[in-house]
Amino acid sequence: MKESNYRTSVFTGWIVALILVGSLGIRPGIAEVANEDPHAEEEDDDEDGHEDGHEDGHEDGHEDGHEDGHEDGREDGHEDGHEDGREEHQGEDIVRLQAEAIREFGIEIGEAGPGNLAKYTRLPGEVVIDPDRLVHVVPRVSGVAREVYKRLGDQVKRGDVLAELESRELAELKSTYLVARERFGLAEKTFTREEKLWREAISSERDYLAAEQNLAEQRIEMRAAEQKLHALGFSNAYLQALTFDEDEYFTRYELRASLQGTVIEKHISLGEVIKDDAEAFVIADLNLVWVKLTVYQKDLSSVRPGQSVRISKEDGSTVTGKISYVSPMVDEVTRTAVAILELNNENGQWRPGSFVAGLVAMEARSVALLIRKSALQTIEGERVVFVETTEGFEPQKVRVGRSNEVDVEIVAGLAVGQRYVVEGAFTLKAQLAKGSFGDGHSH
User: Fold this and answer.
1) 159 φψ region: left (φ > 0), alpha (ψ -120 to 50), beta (else)
2) What residue ranges in 276-398 does DSSP mark as E strands?
3) Residue 268 Cα distances to 21, 106, 151, 159, 420, angstroms
4) Which of 257, 283, 309 is the last residue of a domain?
């Protein structure tokens, strides 16, 4: 009976458990364990709490750690990338210029190497016109200005007509020549006839000699008149074609340029009466000019023909020339001598009348590596020289030694044969500064 009651109670318990599982959604496995052992249920609750806490803690810690690690990695990666980018930018301090920009900026490239570091003396000087390249155009006859074709500053070629005069004096000279030429022609015909008659014993010798004398006199007069016109610039071809029928051109005299150059003075106006000794135009060839340097007595022993001189003017332009002449005498008033050198002036930068300074080397000392002083620049407190690379122009740190007004010795930082920017380094420095603000270095 007890056994039957026990089975009934167990069966009833299972039914209740199934009802609870269906209504509460408890997992069957947990329900089974709960019905099997009440103490096991408490242990399971402890284990479930531990597992839930472990899982929550693990998830929270994982998420927090992941987020923190991600943020730290992102910040570190951003900072590292920024630093790397900055280092890369610093490593790319290169100015890239096209060939056209190099010419436009006046950049001159030289080669570093050994040289002589000279001690210079500065001499004052002045740019003047070469006297052999200067002409004063004067009319050779008096007249009235009929046309004026050239103005101040005009470029002219040899033989160009500068102005036209209407000259009565010229008309008289041409008339005299034409009359003499006609008389000579008649005298020549008379002589030919008399010579023939005399040889045939028809005419006397006296008539023959008289005709010969007249021919000689007419020839002399014609030659004299011809030479006067030649002196005015008229050619033989022009005189042979000259006739009295040229009414329009008979009195016209053309003033022509005898030198290719620039009109630097003009003293003629339309309708003005011009004398035969008046200076109508002054033309100068300024492609080559002189520099006259004043040499003091103490420096005369060190200045000689053939010596190189570096000429500079107030705007910083420089050029190197050679002394062609040193005066053998000293001026009695100034106690100075004059040294002259020629400068190429095809670009017109050396204007006559400008004051200049000449640096003359007095003594020199040999150094292992010498460059032009104009190549040195200062960037962030460091002395640099822009060197030519396959990618462009890059500033390179150097250490300098002795120097003078023109050159400087390089102790470290450059190698013999390395190509560097001699002139225009400041322009490259400015382009580099623009690039540091984001404008870029390429042009």
Assistant:
1) left
2) 281-284, 288-296, 308-312, 318-326, 336-344, 355-372, 376-379, 382-388, 393-397
3) 130, 41, 10, 18, 54
4) 283
Do residue 157 and residue 269 come from a single domain?
Answer: yes
**What residues contact residue 104 under an 8 Å CB cut-off, 6+ apart?**
none
Whether residue 377 contacts residue 386, with contact meaning beta carbons closer than 8 Å, is answered with: yes
SS3 state of residue 187? helix
Q: Give Dmax (Cα) for the chain.
A: 208
Structure tokens at 102: 């190099």
Q: Does one domain contain both 359 and 273?
A: no
Contact criterion met (CB below 8 Å) for 264 and 284: yes
Amino acid at 227: Q
For the record, the structure tokens of 393 come out as 């122009």
* 92, part of any domain: no
Say yes or no: 109 and 46 in one domain.
no
Share in percent of the chain as helix, strand, coil (round to 5):
40, 30, 25
- The one-letter amino acid code at 214 reads N
Convert the pLDDT of each residue in 277-327 to its tens digit: 899 999 999 999 999 999 999 888 889 898 889 898 888 788 889 999 999
Pull the structure tokens for residue 212. Answer: 């010969």
The answer to whether residues 139 and 278 belong to one domain is yes
Q: CB neighbours (10 Å) of residue 209? A: 12
Whether this prediction's pTM lies above 0.90 is answered by no
**Domain interval for residue 9:** 2-86
pLDDT tens-digit readout, 407-439: 888 889 888 988 898 888 888 888 777 765 444
* Domains of the chain: total: 3
